[in-house]
TrEMBL record:
PANTHER family: HTH-TYPE TRANSCRIPTIONAL REGULATOR, METHYLPHOSPHONATE SYNTHASE. This is XRE family transcriptional regulator. Residues 18-72 form the HTH cro/C1-type domain. Signal peptide: none annotated. Coiled coil: none annotated.
Amino acid sequence: MADPIDVAGLLDAVGSRLRALRTRRDFTLTELSERTGISVSTLSRLESGDRRASLDLLLPIATVFDVSLDALVGAETSGDPRVHGTPITRHGRTWVALSRHGEGATAFKVTLPAVPAKYRVEQRVHSGYDWFFVVSGRVRLALGDDEHIIEAGEAVEFDTLVPHGTSSAGPGPAEIIHLMSRAGERVHLRDV
């Protein structure tokens, strides 16, 4: 017979786990409050252990951070190795997490929509490195003053301190596997 679950112990550890996750993801309490609808005061008390975690607090936090409730409370995993990424659409692109959020890079499948041939690729700069592999279609990579057409089956890696941006090179959408650091994830997936 398995040992009983120490529910009180798991709930007592939520605050420090939540604070670590929030700071690792580079969120302020105010940003997390805006995304979850939970007051800054309640989040602060939850992190300090002055407020007991409850399902109505943990669900919106887990959704924002795209982690399971098990990960927030430190429960043992079920042993299921599958990643159940929820599609996120930003600026017409669809992102699906292919890895669990860990300390290093995160993998995403990204669908780049078809765009007009004269489309100007918006470039951004952030710390870190990006890597992507073109699964299907063709990708236009603007890297500083240069543009490259990356074909299906090709991969690229670059320093993200160089201004960069991507779009489908047409005529249809393109699909890529994208590995990026936390800084890259923040820039590409959050409204900065």
